[in-house]
Specification:
- It is a single chain.
- Helix content is about 45%, strand content about 20%.
- The chain has about 210 residues and is α+β, with helices and mostly antiparallel strands.
- The chain has a 5-stranded antiparallel beta sheet, with helices on one face. A 3-stranded antiparallel beta sheet has the order 6-8-9.
- Helix 3 runs parallel beside helix 5, helix 4 packs across helix 6 and helix 5 packs across helix 6.
- Bound molecules: adenosine-5'-diphosphate and magnesium ion.
- Adenosine-5'-diphosphate (ADP) binds next to strand 2, strand 3 and strand 5.
Length: about 210
């Protein structure tokens, strides 16, 4: 990968910006090995997550969820080459402006996923880019097909907790906006069922650790 510049280093992947990938401005998401994992297992896990992430990035686009277009997948090197999304991380955007409209959009996108029996798995304001007034969702490495209300509730709870930790000051307005967007797509009944589940999980005090999934 020539002329690739490291732009982000996450817990499991490095993100490189490639200025000219066959004419596209692209990003390479490279899953790196974890020294504490057995090598064979590590290779399998990285390939599996890469494959799943590319699959969901592609699949949910058809449901109307804006995602970076996948340009190339290299399972051997646990790498996805995808469109570089111009814009600002939703997290940063919200820290500047408590933009209810943007969060409402994200709520609708979450509901779109859920009504197609998919959960994102890591729904936070760090996994969305505000681009041209539009919210683009990415980082589907923990996404899965899901059907239970519990799965949907966990997705919403993760988002709620991320709002609480990062955007505490405007939490109420922003979470309400998220629910508004969610309800617009999922309808009142479904939304209430999911919200009830969120409260139930909170009461049980069972928090989902990213590491466990
Ligand atoms: N397609 C993309 N376009 C622009 N920036 C991206 C893109 N994909 C990832 N990034 C940047 O890289 C960071 C980490 O990417 P992400 O997929 O969330 O990796 P991780 O699984 O390590 O969290 C993002 O927060 C974002 O800043
Ligand atoms: Mg991420």
């Amino acid at each position: 990968m020539e002329k690739a510049r490291l732009i982000a280093r996450g817990a499991e992947a490095h993100i490189y910006l490639i200025e000219d990938w066959h004419g596209f401005r692209a990003v390479a998401k490279v899953r790196v090995s974890k020294p504490y994992r057995v090598r064979e297992l590590d290779t399998i896990i990285r390939a599996r997550r890469t494959k799943l992430e590319a699959y969901f990035l592609y699949k949910v686009k058809r449901y109307g969820v804006p995602t970076p277009t996948v340009l190339h997948v290299d399972l051997h090197n646990a790498t996805i080459i995808m469109e570089y999304v111009e814009g600002i991380l939703l997290r940063e955007h919200l820290l500047r402006t408590p933009d209810e409209d943007a969060v409402e959009q994200l709520g609708s996108l979450a509901a779109l996923l859920h009504t197609h029996s998919i959960v994102h798995g890591d729904l936070t304001t760090s996994n969305a880019i505000f681009s041209d007034e539009q919210v683009v969702l990415f980082d589907f490495g923990l996404a899965k097909s899901a059907v239970t209300v519990e799965d949907f509730g966990v997705d919403v709870l993760l988002f709620k907790r991320s709002l609480l930790s990062v955007h505490f000051k405007y939490f109420n307005e922003l979470f309400e906006a998220f629910i508004r967007g969610y309800q617009r797509v999922a309808g009142k009944n479904r939304t209430n069922t999911v919200l009830k589940k969120v409260s139930e999980i909170e009461r049980r005090g069972r928090y989902v650790s990213r590491e466990l999934r």
